[in-house]
Each structure stands twice: as C-alpha cells, then as structure tokens.
Design goal:
single chain; mainly alpha; 9 helices
Length: 205
C-alpha cells in the first residue's frame, strides 16, 4: 500500500467512527455510570471488534460473513439484549452516592471489554464499513503482512483518538454529580443512552 492509501483509510475510518452511533452511545453511558477507566476497557472492546472485521476482510472472509448472516444476527441480538439489560439496571437501580467512584476490579474490566466487543460486532454501521466500503478504499489484493500490521496500528490509533474525547467528557461530567438527585439524573441519562444504543442496533438493517 502507498502512503496515500493509508491516509485515505485513516480519514475514512475517523469519519465513520466520529459519527455518533450505538458504540459511542454505549461508551458514553458506561463513562457516565462507571468513570473513565472502566469505560476505557469498553473502548478497547469496541476497537477489538473493528480489528476482527478488518482482519476478516483482509483474509477474504467478507463473502463468508455475508453467507453466514445468521451468526451476525445472533451477535447483533445478543448486543441488543445486553444493552437493554444495562438500561433497565441503570433506570431501576443505577449507582448510589457511596459508589460514585468507579470500581476497577478485574471482573468489571472484563465485562466492560466484552460489552464493547459485542456492541461492535453487532453494529451494522461497522459491518458496512469493513465488508462493503473498505474494499473500495484500499486494494485488498495488494496488502502485504507489513501493510496489515500498519493498518492494525492505524485502526487502533485512529479509534482511540476519536473515542477517548467522548468518554473523557462524559467521565468528567460525572464528577459534578454528587447529590442523590444528580445521581438519579445520571442513572436515567445512562439508561437512556443504553436504550438508544440497543434500539439503534435493533432497527438498523
């Protein structure tokens, strides 16, 4: 690949990632509810999902992905169910005053990471970018192992640059919400974002 090809790919990816969608909505909701560090693991899960699609397309699995659409439908509805459950949990219970500070135990990090991974794998916008649009941006037949490594690094870097401002702003706003009334608003807001993300994934074809 040429430098121009890498730049074109990076620009297209940044634009696609910056447009708010289910992944961004879920990330904001996690940052509001659990703080920056926990939501960072979700961001890593989102990025891992992108890398899975990137790798699948480069290996020539786009046709396989289209043929075995049932597997993607299962992943999609698992993501919808998980986000809906999170929305219900935040709306009915959420976090209390004594648990405003984010918990960073290992199980929470793993759960956040897996949530991000499932959301990305079930997001039609991400599928369309990698399966349908990416082959029109770069010549998949000309990609070498070195090119693949550069694409992986570019993908991770671009997505981090796009996603971190979202979760940082949401996590920062969280520290101003210390009273029970404010926490109630935080919980309802997070629940709304989760529900919106679930609906967006469910309704997109």
């Amino acid at each position: 690949m040429t430098v121009a090809g890498f730049i074109t790919y990076s620009g297209a990816l940044a634009l696609a990632a910056a447009i708010p969608g289910p992944g961004v909505a879920a990330l904001i909701a996690r940052a509001l509810g659990s703080g920056f560090r926990a939501s960072l693991f979700m961001a890593l899960g989102l990025i891992s999902g992108d890398l899975i699609y990137l790798t699948a397309v480069i290996l020539g699995l786009a046709l396989v992905a289209q043929t075995f659409g049932t597997a993607f439908l299962i992943i999609k509805w698992l993501g919808v169910a998980y986000l809906a459950w999170l929305a219900w949990s935040f709306w009915t219970k959420g976090i209390a005053t004594e648990t405003v500070n984010p918990r960073t135990d290992r199980s929470g990090a793993v759960a956040s990471y897996l949530a991000g991974l499932v959301v990305t794998l079930g997001n039609p916008k991400v599928m369309v970018f990698y399966i349908a649009l990416m082959p029109t941006i770069i010549d998949l037949e000309q990609i070498s192992v070195g090119d693949y490594g550069i694409l992986v690094m570019l993908t991770g870097a671009v997505l981090l640059v796009v996603l971190i401002p979202y979760l940082a702003l949401a996590a920062k706003a969280r520290w101003f919400l210390q009273t029970p009334r404010a926490l109630r608003l935080l919980n309802r807001t997070a629940a709304s974002f989760m529900a919106a993300a679930a609906a967006a994934i469910a309704l997109r074809q």
